[in-house]
Write a structure and sequence with these properties.
Length: about 280
């Protein structure tokens, strides 16, 4: 697992080198052919290919695992997006341990959440979304191993221009800056047995726990936000085989009493159901 960290750092370094060379070539007369600027990108792609040959797909799970059963991290009525019940990797990539990740958005009733708009409004404030500020719960007893909530909650990216900006510019910059800028404010719980739960896109300043704290299943950990590489306030949840999203591989999960909801499937979690009996 540790061998993948230097590879990812080197990959980002080569991407930044490419950008620096392009800017320098446009600004200065460096006296070499323009296509030389693309050598770092060629090296970066070669690095990824060789990493895959040495150790299989660099971020994919090593072996198939049975889903780990945990409690749902939310209460109330929510809708699933980018679900591993429909495909894996659920977000189109194994990177950042998100092979089996799921996104959920709060919808207390149908139509309560603003939908996608082609052109206007370009962006909406977070208060327009019922997920913003919703409590997020510990899915099992565990130990907090990562906790960060100082990044800002940005406006939504739920119009076509804003979504294109996210995909073509903002997302690429965040990827260069590393996992912390992708997941935004986040929390990682060590559940034991080699399983770690990641909660991403948390609300700024909403953490109720710190690294090293022991937590109980059903305990409120933070609030749902819109930080990091996020289109709207929602919870991105996943299980991993390590605490660092940069090097971890994904682990399948199932929520007690719910399973894994499919894309656009609404599910409801009563407050008393957030802690299953076997977690007692």
């Amino acid at each position: 697992m540790t061998g993948r960290k230097p590879t990812r750092i080197a990959y980002r370094g080569l991407q930044l080198t490419f950008l620096g060379l392009v800017i320098a070539h446009l600004s200065l007369d460096l006296g070499y052919p323009w296509w030389w600027n693309f050598l770092p990108i060629v090296l970066a792609c070669t690095l990824v290919i060789m990493a895959g040959r040495w150790g299989g797909a660099p971020d994919s799970p090593r072996v198939a695992r049975e889903p780990v059963e945990v409690a749902p991290p939310v209460t109330g009525r929510w809708t699933a997006q980018n679900s591993p019940a429909d495909r894996t990797p659920s977000h189109g990539t194994h990177a950042y341990g998100q092979t089996f990740a799921i996104d959920v958005v709060a919808e207390p009733q149908p139509g309560a959440r603003p939908g996608f708009s082609p052109l206007w409004p370009l962006a909406r404030r977070n208060a327009a979304f019922p997920a913003f500020g919703a409590p997020l719960l510990a899915v099992a007893d565990g130990t907090v191993v990562r906790a960060a909530d100082r990044q800002r909650d940005h406006l939504s990216r739920t119009s076509l221009p804003a979504l294109l900006y996210l995909m073509l510019i903002e997302g690429s910059v965040r990827d260069l800056l590393g996992a912390k800028r992708i997941v935004g404010n986040h929390l990682v719980l060590d559940l034991g047995g080699g399983s770690y739960a990641l909660y991403a896109h948390l609300r700024r300043g909403s953490l109720t726990v710190r690294e090293g704290d022991r937590v109980c299943a059903g305990q409120v950990l933070a609030r749902c936000g819109n930080s990091g590489n996020s289109t709207e306030p929602h919870l991105h949840f996943q299980l991993m085989d390590g605490p660092d999203p940069d090097t971890a591989r994904g682990i399948p999960f199932t929520w007690h009493g719910i399973g894994v909801p499919r894309n656009r499937e609404a599910f409801e979690v009563p407050a008393q159901a957030s802690q299953p009996a076997w977690l007692g």
